[in-house]
């Protein structure tokens, strides 16, 4: 699903980091952190060293098969 809700994205990022049941990404790549700056959503992309503005973030929750 696509989302611009900051709290919803942060919950998914926590799941991605500690549980592994979610994948948070954007067209540029996988996201490891998210924040709002001057009203715009900016994301820290895995392997890149700076924050990039994004319109929305894609959140995918894994099925049971991926967890085992």
Index terms:
alpha+beta, three-stranded antiparallel sheet, disordered C terminus, globular, 68 residues, single chain
Task: Walk me through this protein's architecture.
There is one protein chain. The protein is 26% helix and 40% strand. With 68 residues, the protein is an alpha+beta fold. It has one domain. The chain has a three-stranded antiparallel sheet, with helices on one face. Strand 4 and strand 5 form a beta hairpin. The longest helix is centred in the N-terminal third of the chain and has 14 residues. The C terminus is likely disordered.
Topology (elements, then pairings):
Blueprint: E1 2-3, H1 6-19, E2 22-25, E3 31-37, E4 40-45, E5 51-53, E6 57-61, H2 64-67
Antiparallel strand pairs: 1-6, 2-6, 3-4, 4-5
User: What structural class should be given to the helix and strand makeup?
Assistant: alpha+beta
Q: How large, in whole angstroms, is the Cα Rg?
A: 12 Å
- Note poorly predicted spans: 64-68
Assembly status: single chain
Taking the sheet with the most strands, its summary is:
3 strands, antiparallel
Name the shape in a single word.
globular
Q: Care to give the gist of this entry?
A:
The chain has 68 residues and is of the alpha+beta class. The chain contains two helices and six strands; from the N terminus they run βαβββββα.
């Amino acid at each position: 699903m696509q989302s611009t809700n900051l709290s919803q994205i942060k919950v998914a990022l926590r799941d991605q980091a500690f549980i592994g049941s979610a994948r948070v990404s954007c067209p540029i790549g996988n996201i490891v952190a998210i924040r709002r700056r001057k009203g715009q959503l900016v994301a820290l992309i895995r392997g890149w060293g700076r924050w990039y503005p994004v319109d929305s973030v894609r959140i995918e929750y894994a099925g049971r098969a991926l967890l085992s």
